[in-house]
Amino acid sequence: MENYTYNSLTLQLEGLVVSEDSIYPAFLFLFFSYLFIMVTNVSMLVVIFMDKNLHQPMYLLYCNLSVSDIIGSTRILPRLLTDMLRPPSNRLISYYECVVQAFTSHMFGTTAHTVLMIMAFDRYVAICNPLRYAAIMNNKMVIKLTVSAWGVAFVLVGILLGLTIRLNRCRTLIKNPYCDNASLFKLSCESVFINNVYGLTFTVVLFTGSIGSIVLTYTKITVVCLTSKNKTLNSKALKTCSTHLILYLIMIFSGCIIITLHRFPQYSDYRKLSSILFVIVPGSLNPIIYGMQSKEIRKFLSEMFQSKQVFPIK
């Protein structure tokens, strides 16, 4: 029979459950994945900051995605790596730290949606209204879009976690590699009906808003490209929009898998693996896909490496 501990401030993380033979390969994989995420995303931010030619709305808005990936992976992966080297009984975390980690993980996922939505708006203005692009997408608009992306995510996630922390807890085991909202409210023995209703509403609003904005903007962009005889415009639209669409599909596919598997307890191992990949895959691929597609970024990196002179040995 399960022992109940009411409102304990110390929780136990299940962590990543792997066999003894797989601990170190899994640890190395996660460690180098985290290192790769940090190096690529920080490098993108540095390149955009250093090159004045990249001080354009498209790249400045992309910085939000890199910042989100850095914060999300840093709040989750180092703790996960540390717990892998500990016995299961020693994988303890304070309740408040767990709440912060859950808030960060949901902010990470939500801002991915909102940032890609404002990036879609930027591409829509650039392709469908190019003559007014500079006037519309000025610095003030970029700041407004950035604040909106983070502000909407903050409010939605704040309410989500606020409904959870009001609950009394009678369990202490977090059945997940890291803390998230679902794992937290499952610690309660009270009714979580309101949490489920808001969680479902949260998901529907976020997915409907992001998918709707993407479909709407891309439909209008497609119409403009089909009716335009400007091959340069069509080529540019294809490159920039294909990159944005790939990033969006990676993010939404990863999120849908986790949300779906949360409804099927018998597939908990697959859900745990998916929740880790949700942090690693988008965070690793975003800077690569965006960086390799961008002609301006490739040009900057090429010039930077070519500028290095080889001094003759005297």
Report on the architecture of this protein.
This protein has a single domain (10-14, 21-296), classed as Rhopdopsin 7-helix transmembrane proteins, CATH 1.20.1070.10. It contains ten helices and three strands; from the N terminus they run βααβαααβααααα. It has helices at residues 23-50, 57-84, 95-128, 133-136, 139-165, 181-185, 193-227, 231-261, 268-293, 295-306; strands at 10-13, 92-94, 173-174. The protein has a three-stranded mixed β-sheet with strand order 2-1-3. α3 (95-128) packs antiparallel against α5, α3 runs parallel beside α7 (193-227) and α3 (95-128) packs antiparallel against α8. The longest helix has 35 residues, at 193-227. The chain starts with 9 loop residues before the first strand and ends in an 8-residue tail after the last helix. Residues 309-314 have low confidence and may be disordered.
Strand order of the largest sheet: 2-1-3
Distance N to C terminus: 80 Å
Radius of gyration: 22 Å
Q: Count all strands and give the number.
A: 3
Please indicate the percent range of residues in DSSP E strands (runs of 2 or more).
under 5%
Indicate the CATH topology: Rhopdopsin 7-helix transmembrane proteins
- Whole-number tally of structural domains: 1
Low-confidence stretches: 309-314
CATH homology superfamily name: Rhodopsin 7-helix transmembrane proteins
Number of DSSP helical runs:
10
The assigned CATH architecture is: Up-down Bundle
Judged by helices, strands and strand pairing, the structural class is mainly alpha
Q: State the name of the first-level CATH class.
A: Mainly Alpha
State the order of secondary-structure elements, H for helix, E for strand.
Answer: EHHEHHHEHHHHH
Shape: globular
**What's the rounded overall pLDDT mean?**
86
Helical residue percent band: over 70%
For the largest beta-sheet, the strand count, sense and barrel status come to: 3 strands, mixed
